[in-house]
């Protein structure tokens, strides 16, 4: 936001680039921190800004009262007709509130790429959580089967060691007996 004497003369909503632009219209004069002067004392609102302010206040009040701004739209016929955006609707309708009569009115596909993320990608990610919950029993089964395989491998290794050890013992006794018998025959 540009401040000071070099600020260009144009509509307030054209110079702000904040997510709360509408607050300046609703709550003017806003007390700024520097010198405690109000915004409207430093920057006079143009007639167009005042019209947009009045329209925005009427639309918000109508929305708060009736859950839709249609009542305000009947009081502001030069702003056009507002149509509700239905859930799952593909065209992303929005109402452009402007001081220029040719620019204001219903529009579609507001920030289509950004909305595609929220309307397309996020639901797919949310659906993944259902799939993950369905797959939760499988890791338990997997680790149980790994434990059983390891147990069988240990049993088989133990049996192999025992068999080899017993054959080794039998073989050494057998050789020892043969040596003893061989010595006995020589005598």
UniProtKB/TrEMBL annotation:
Domain Carboxylesterase type B residue range list: 38-118
Question: What does the UniProt keyword field contain?
Answer: Glycoprotein, Membrane, Transmembrane, Transmembrane helix
Sequence intervals crossing the membrane: 140-165
Q: Which Gene3D superfamilies match?
A: alpha/beta hydrolase (3.40.50.1820)
* Name this protein carries in UniProt: Cholinesterase
Q: Which organism is it from?
A: Orchesella cincta
């Amino acid at each position: 936001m540009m401040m000071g004497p070099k600020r260009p003369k144009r509509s307030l909503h054209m110079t702000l680039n904040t997510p709360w632009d509408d607050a300046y219209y609703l709550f003017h004069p806003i007390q700024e921190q520097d010198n405690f002067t109000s915004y409207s004392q430093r920057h006079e609102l143009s007639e167009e800004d005042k019209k947009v302010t009045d329209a925005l206040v009427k639309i918000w009040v109508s929305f708060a009262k009736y859950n839709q701004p249609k009542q305000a739209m009947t009081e502001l016929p030069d702003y056009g007709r507002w149509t509700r955006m239905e859930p799952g609707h593909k065209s992303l309708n929005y109402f452009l509130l402007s001081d220029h009569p040719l620019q204001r009115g219903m529009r579609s596909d507001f920030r289509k790429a950004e909305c595609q993320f929220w309307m397309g990608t996020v639901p797919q990610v949310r659906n993944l959580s259902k799939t993950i919950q369905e797959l939760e029993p499988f890791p338990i089964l997997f680790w149980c089967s790994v434990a059983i395989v390891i147990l069988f491998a240990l049993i088989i290794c133990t049996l192999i060691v025992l068999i080899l050890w017993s054959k080794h013992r039998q073989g050494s006794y057998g050789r020892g007996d043969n040596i003893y018998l061989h010595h006995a025959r020589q005598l």
